[in-house]
Amino acid sequence: MSELNQLAPTCSADEIACLCDSHTFLKAYQSCCVDHCQTARQTRAAINHIHSTCDSAPVSDDGSQ
Question: What is the DSSP string of 38-49?
Fold first, then answer.
């Protein structure tokens, strides 16, 4: 995602917990899914996947998930 530095400036692409803490990143991810997934089912699956990933993300360094 080329906009990562703008959406979650303190996160690197491999810091899942940090990305999950970024409301801006999550909203952009959802918008991307809506804009680019070909079916409603694909959109729901992609959005469910990010929420599942965030729910199981390790705790970030600042103590949040």
Answer: SSHHHHHHHHHH
- Amino acid, single-letter form, for residue 33: C
Please check whether residue 1 is in contact with residue 7, taking contact to mean a CB–CB distance below 8 angstroms: yes
Domain boundaries, the chain: 14-55
Q: One-letter amino acid identity for 37?
A: C
Length of the chain: 65
H-type helices in 1-65, by residue range? 4-7, 16-21, 23-36, 40-55
Q: How does pLDDT run across 2-45, given as a tens digit for each residue?
A: 788 899 999 999 999 999 999 999 999 999 999 999 999 999 99
Rounded to two decimals, what is the model's pTM?
Answer: 0.78
